[in-house]
Design goal:
Layout (H helix, E strand, L loop, with lengths): L1 H17 L5 H23 L15 H21 L4 H8 L2 H11 L7 H17 L8 H22 L7 H22 L11 H25 L2 H4 L5 H14 L5 H23 L1
């Protein structure tokens, strides 16, 4: 999970650096094609081995289609959010996903409501309100898109946990990444984007982002399946550290006092909530 978060922070930074040269839909397609190639190579490398053994007919499971859809919504909302908000604040809002998982689990009856869990979720969402304030580096639209991305992330992780064990992690990651490629042209057409020649220096950054996305997706799928979510999810908060460091080093972004307070509340509430769930 820590590896996945480091890769995601680098991926987000590299994507943000390319959005001035390429439209969002083109970035999604270019990154997706390269990432899919890498993930398919990983899957082929594991073919016949114990890490990929299983019944491939399970790949037609409806939950896999749902995860592909959630991968698409996560990718689109994250790219659009990064184009309009700072990396650190987008990452902080995305970190409300574990709190949303806890709230959804109690609502669906997967977890019994408990005062400590309810209090942690409420505290974390209150911290998110401190972050959801437009600043010179972040627009209200960008922060709203980051919130939608957090909802999509939470749903994606819950679905991942319930995928059949016969599905190899590398194939799940590859197929969900391919789904983003398939939707990218449609999204670009709907947004009225005009694509440009990929023969630009920024294409190198897109290639690097694809590598980070491929490794991050594979690591996240493996993390969500090999242990209980309440155990591994607290390590998601390392994303805030990575994103803050990268944002400061590349753009000189420094969140204001209220944003820092909100980030601290989100992280604290999330870890406390998930530790309480793990103990129960």
């Amino acid at each position: 999970m820590v590896t996945a978060m480091a890769c995601y922070a680098l991926n987000d930074a590299l994507v943000k650096l390319t959005l001035h040269a390429f439209p969002a839909g083109q970035v999604l397609l270019m990154r997706g094609l390269l990432a899919s190639t890498l993930l398919m190579a990983i899957s082929w490398r594991h073919a016949g081995g114990p890490s990929a053994a299983g019944d491939t007919s399970a790949l037609w499971h409806p939950l896999l289609a749902l995860r592909c859809l959630l991968e698409v919504t996560t990718a689109i909302t994250s790219v659009l959010a990064l184009s309009q908000a700072s990396l650190a604040l987008v990452s902080a809002i995305m970190m409300t996903a574990p709190l949303l998982i806890a709230a959804a689990s109690m609502t669906l009856g997967w977890e019994r409501p408990h005062p400590r869990l309810l209090g942690g979720v409420a505290l974390g969402l209150a911290g998110a309100l401190l972050v959801l304030r437009p600043t010179p580096q972040s627009s209200s639209a960008g922060l709203t898109l980051a919130g939608l991305c957090a909802v999509s992330l939470a749903a994606r992780d819950m679905v991942t946990r319930r995928l059949p064990s016969s599905m190899p992690s590398s194939l799940v990651a590859a197929l969900t990444t391919c789904s983003v490629c398939a939707v990218a042209p449609v999204f670009s057409w709907a947004m009225g984007e005009s694509w440009v020649s990929p023969a630009r220096p920024e294409a190198i950054a897109v290639s690097a982002a694809a590598g980070c996305a491929a490794v991050g997706n594979y690591a996240l799928v493996a993390a969500c399946r090999d242990a209980d979510l309440s155990v591994v999810t607290p390590f998601r908060y390392s994303l805030i550290v990575w994103a803050s460091l990268v944002g400061f080093m590349v753009w000189g972004d420094v969140p204001d006092a209220l944003n820092l307070a909100g980030i601290a509340i989100i992280a604290t509430a999330g870890v406390v909530t998930l530790r309480a769930a793990a103990r129960r």
